[in-house]
Design brief:
heterodimer; A: about 425 residues; mainly alpha; three-stranded antiparallel beta sheet; about 70% helix; B: about 625 residues; alpha+beta; Penicillin-binding protein 2a (Domain 2); Beta-lactamase; 2 domains; five-stranded antiparallel beta sheet; 21 strands; about 20% strand
């Protein structure tokens, strides 16, 4: 790393990153300690291991910053191919842990290639979009971009790890930013709305509603001929989607999938069964009150009531032990961090850096949104970690590499 | 717009999450209590219940360990159910039912399979316990009685029922509560304060350590010991004398109001209401509507007082200045009033002065005295009201205010009461003439009569009767019981009546009941009573009543004795009164013949008469 680059590093982002990682560790200690604790560096315990992963992250950061930024741009394709191969190779050499073949195990170290695939995909997408021959406004090029995104999503889905696959939906944001038509986003949001309405109201009711609305629009519109096509298209589209949602939900989904949605929609309250996680997590957060129970003092946390509390449900520890004030600050720091990355992305001269930065912000945002939404009972249970917070080496390193590649790119934005 | 979309989304999501957190953590506080139920286990340390002593420091009630057989279903291994059931004296079906209940309750937590083993069951089971994996024995505390008497005073303890749980939220299911007697009256003192220990639970409901290092835990405080005013020797003696009879004995120390004995007959061994046998025994006694062993006759039975009431009418007449002690009244084997109406009397000399009137219990004498009291005033209404006020000052006609949870008010009729009976309001003094001799509308409880006797013994005042003498060795300083309550009668009038009561023993109705070396003042009483047999009002043999105090100067004991259907006053009640007084003052019985008579005579035949279905004769 050249000395001149040190001053051009965005220290605010680094500071926020360090804040999130360390506060995450503090909460991992609390949620994974038993009655007593001998040393926070006890390597046999999750908190000790996480300390080690954090230490190794520093090495990873120095290594990432030492590499010339051009390397990432030049080798993005190769990195992507290598990453996809590592995902494919899981089916041959991977280890299955709790139902998902997501891990390579080398002696005491396990690696989860899907955590690194996010950075690789972001690089590949940035490279493709910034390619002079690519015109992302064209639908053919858009299709290629979608292929880049869908390959890792599909490979991860086969593990199966639906949660990690959903994250790739975040890539719609950089595409939109770079000029892809808003139709995709609108259809996406519309589909989600129809999906929820179908579950709440039922597809038949939704069909009648769409029909009624269509007739009204047709009757009160002067250009009856011009509007007829769109009205019919709308009604058919909505009904088709709604009935297919109905079909998928009741015929394709398994009961435990259905339950996850039903709990969030308030259709089912089953505090002992499938709703247990969400219910216990809400109780833990609610137990925090204004100021929280204090570090390592949370009764829900100590009683291990929330499963997976040091990994996916780490935010419930924050809620119980640091209260509204503490969890609000975490929300605030995450928001500032994402906005800061977005701000940095916008100031890039090179499209490659901008697209990559935008992807970083989108991926972190997607994780944050889905994870905290799940832990606070707003979204269905989707098992993905909270960036920088949740226990796990691969996750931490994946996000560290993702973020620091961009910090490196940003620090050299003037050089290019 | 393309640049702004994600920024807006980030801000919206941040705001949304903040709102959600605010709702969960600040607005909705049900989560905090959910968490306590969820994550904390509260264990109570039940303190030793206070001991109960008699006035001389004899231990009456202590505690004994009791043992519950518990099960943890998860640890249960197959076992010999036949042997297990035979040791515990339960049926196999019962065991099966309990095990199902335990399973439904929890597989990891202990559940009571058989509560409160007897010592014998426990000793036998303990040797075999190694065979029954998954079962264990939990120790509890039960009452241990050192006396077979005084069950009506001591009361009993019981597990709180659903009704109490709903009414008093500080009780938890399985807690013990004192019911009746001093156990009920002084429950909060005897119970002590529970210790509370908080434990952190995990999601399997297992304890994983103390909560907050035990900083908010509290220690149990042992219940206080009670010293009662009861003399247990006298109490036991009284119950012995009352065996095979029905009625009550109430004895009070006049100078303090302390209740020395409170006998009700028939009674029961307090040990019958301990532990597992409590429920069947209680049910049995509760449904015994004939002898009513749970009915405390000393406190609850309301009878016409009969002739002892004459003493107080004499005092009122003296106070109201309508007679002097030397005024003579005629008796023509009774007293004629109105149109050919007569209040009967027995054969004795006539005319009589006050003292002889009391000694021979002349009805005619007191009928005339009573008329003078009522007719002194312009209207019978005013006369009755004045008369009643005097009686109220003796604690009659209302609750006495003693420290036991049950009682009866008795009745001293008011003018309004007679207005109701005689709607034309044409009643006069003579209409209420039965009041002169303690019959008719006047009703008292034995403890009211005893208290009245104590007030006479004190020559004009009494202390509210009570059973608590000391708390943890410190004297009872409840103001209700150390305040002197003055009657409306001047003390100079008492000596004349007391002389008459002394003559009851020297030349009156109780001449054969004198105790050597003790001057007793008393008054016999015979109370007519009726019952309904097949809806027909039928007279039964009279109740035998007696009041007395002794010695005449500086009295140590005042008592009232009531024997249902014991015929005349001196026959049963008088004998018992003399024996009780001798026992208390001398500590021994010299009049063996009297004691033998009482112990060998029983009234079971008399009590069976109304239930025999055949015609019977009374007062034989």
């Amino acid at each position: 790393m050249k000395p001149s680059n040190v001053s051009s590093i965005d220290w605010l982002s680094v500071f926020l990153y360090v804040l999130l990682v360390l506060f995450g560790w503090v909460n991992i200690i609390s949620s994974s300690m038993g009655d007593s604790i001998e040393s926070v560096f006890d390597i046999s315990q999750p908190y000790g291991k996480q300390a080690l992963w954090i230490g190794l992250s520093i090495v990873l950061i120095i290594f990432t910053l030492a590499i010339e930024s051009k390397f990432f741009e030049r080798f993005a394709g190769l990195i992507f191919v290598f990453s996809m191969l590592s995902l494919t190779g899981l089916h041959l050499f991977g280890k299955t842990i709790s139902g998902a073949t997501s891990w390579y195990v080398f002696g005491p170290v396990s690696l989860q290639p899907s955590e690194f695939a996010k950075a690789a995909t972001a690089l590949a997408l940035a490279m493709y979009i910034s390619d002079l021959q690519t015109n992302i406004a064209k639908w053919k090029d858009q299709l290629k971009a979608f292929v880049i995104i869908l390959i890792p999503a599909f490979l991860i889905l086969t593990q199966p790890d639906a949660g990690s696959a959903i994250v790739y939906a975040a890539m719609i944001f950089p595409l939109y930013r770079e000029g892809v038509t808003s139709l995709y986003l609108s259809i996406g949001f519309g589909a989600i709305t129809i999906f929820i309405l179908t579950l709440v109201l039922g597809s038949v009711f939704l069909f009648i509603l769409a029909l009624a609305l269509g007739i009204l629009i047709y009757l009160f519109n002067k250009n009856k001929k011009g509007v007829l096509k769109y009205v019919l298209l709308g009604i058919i589209g909505i009904s088709a989607l709604s009935f297919s949602v109905d079909f998928v939900f009741y015929k394709v989904f398994k009961q435990h999938h259905r339950d996850r949605f039903n709990i969030v929609l308030g259709k089912e309250v089953d505090a002992k069964g499938i709703g247990y996680n969400t219910n216990q997590s809400e109780i833990a957060i609610g137990n925090g009150g204004w100021l929280g129970k204090g570090w390592t003092k949370g009764t829900q946390t100590k009683g291990n009531f929330v499963p997976e509390q040091h990994t996916d449900y780490i935010f419930s520890t924050v809620g119980e032990e640091w209260g509204f004030i503490g969890s609000f600050l975490v929300i605030l720091v995450f928001s500032i961090f994402i906005l800061r990355i977005l701000y940095l992305a916008e100031r890039q001269k090179k499209q490659f850096s901008r697209v990559y930065g935008y992807s970083v912000a989108s991926i972190v945002f997607m994780h944050f949104f889905v994870n905290v939404g799940m832990v606070t009972g707003l979204l269905p249970t989707v098992g993905i970690p909270l960036p920088f917070f949740s226990y796990g080496g691969s996750g931490l390193w994946g996000f560290t590499v993702l973020v620091f590649i961009f910090i490196k790119l940003d620090s050299e934005r003037m050089n290019a | 717009m393309r640049r702004l979309l994600l920024i807006i989304l980030v801000l919206l999501v941040g705001l949304g999450f903040t709102a959600r957190l605010f709702y969960l953590q600040v607005i909705n506080d049900s989560y905090a209590s959910l968490s306590i139920n969820n994550a904390l286990k509260i264990k109570y340390e039940i303190p030793q219940r206070g001991y109960i002593f008699d006035r001389n420091g004899k231990l009456l009630v202590a505690n004994q360990p009791s043992y519950d057989v518990m099960v943890i279903m998860k640890e249960l291994k197959p076992f010999d159910t036949v042997e297990f059931c035979s040791i515990l004296h339960i049926t196999k079906e019962k065991l099966k039912k309990q095990l199902t209940k335990a399973k439904n309750y929890s597989t990891r937590l202990p559940y009571v399979i058989v509560p409160q083993l007897t010592k014998g069951e426990y000793a036998y089971l303990q040797e075999k316990m190694y065979k029954y994996e998954g079962f264990h024995i939990q120790k509890r505390s039960l009452r241990d009685y050192n006396t077979k008497s005084a069950s009506n005073i001591l009361g009993y303890i019981s597990e709180v029922n659903d009704y109490i749980l709903k009414k008093k939220p500080k009780f938890k299911s399985g807690d013990l509560i004192g019911l009746q007697g001093v156990e009920g009256q002084y429950d909060s003192i005897l119970r002590g304060i529970k210790g509370v220990k908080y434990f952190q639970k995990d999601r399997f409901n297992r304890e994983i350590g103390s909560y907050k290092s035990g900083k908010i835990d509290t220690l149990a405080v042992r219940g206080k010991d009670l010293t009662l005013t009861i003399d247990i020797d006298l109490q036991e003696y009284g119950e012995k004398l009352m065996q095979n009879k029905r009625g009550g004995i109430v004895a009070i120390e006049p100078s303090t109001g302390e209740i020395l004995t409170l006998v009700t007959a028939p009674s029961y061994d307090p040990d019958l209401l301990v532990g597992r046998k409590r429920s069947p025994n209680f049910t049995k006694m509760h449904y015994d509507s004939i002898s009513k062993p749970l009915f405390d006759r000393g406190l609850l039975a309301q009878y016409p007082p009969g002739s002892p009431f004459k003493t107080i009418n004499a005092l009122i007449a003296l106070q109201e200045n309508v007679i002097t002690e030397n005024d003579r009244f005629h008796c023509q084997h009774g007293y004629y009033y109105g149109r050919n109406r007569k209040m009967g009397c027995h054969v004795h000399a006539s005319p009589l002065k006050l003292k002889e009137g009391i000694a021979v219990s002349c009805n005619a004498y007191f009928a005339q005295v009573y008329r003078k009291i009522i007719e002194k005033y312009d209207t019978p209404r005013e006369g009755i009201t004045r008369w009643r006020n005097h009686l109220r000052s003796f604690g009659l006609g209302g609750f006495l205010g003693y420290d036991l949870p049950i009682g009866g008010p008795g009745r001293i009729p008011t003018a309004d009461y007679y207005d109701k009976i005689y709607p034309q309001k044409n009643w006069r003094g003579v209409t209420t003439l039965s009041n002169a001799i303690g019959q008719g509308e006047v009703i008292t409880t034995p403890i009211q009569l005893a208290n009245m006797t104590a007030a006479i013994a004190n020559r004009g005042y009494y202390y509210t009767p009570h059973v608590l003498k000391a708390l943890d060795g410190k004297p009872n300083i409840d103001v209700r019981f150390i305040e002197k309550r003055k009657t409306t009668i001047d003390s100079i009038h008492f000596e004349k009546v007391i002389d008459g009561m002394e003559q009851v023993f020297t030349k009156g109705t109780a001449y054969f009941l004198q105790v050597p070396d003790i001057t007793i003042c008393g008054k016999t009483g015979t109370s007519e009573n009726f019952t309904k047999i097949n809806g027909k009002r039928t007279q039964l043999t009279d109740h035998s009543i007696f009041i007395a105090f002794a010695p005449k100067e500086n009295p140590k004991i005042a008592l009232a004795v009531f024997v249902e259907n014991g015929y005349w006053g001196a026959r049963y009640a008088g004998r018992i009164a003399s024996l009780m007084i001798e026992k208390y003052l001398k500590g021994k019985i010299t009049m063996k013949h009297l004691e033998d008579w009482v112990l060998t005579h029983d009234l079971q035949e008399e009590y069976a008469k109304p239930y025999s279905g055949k015609p019977f004769k009374i007062n034989q």
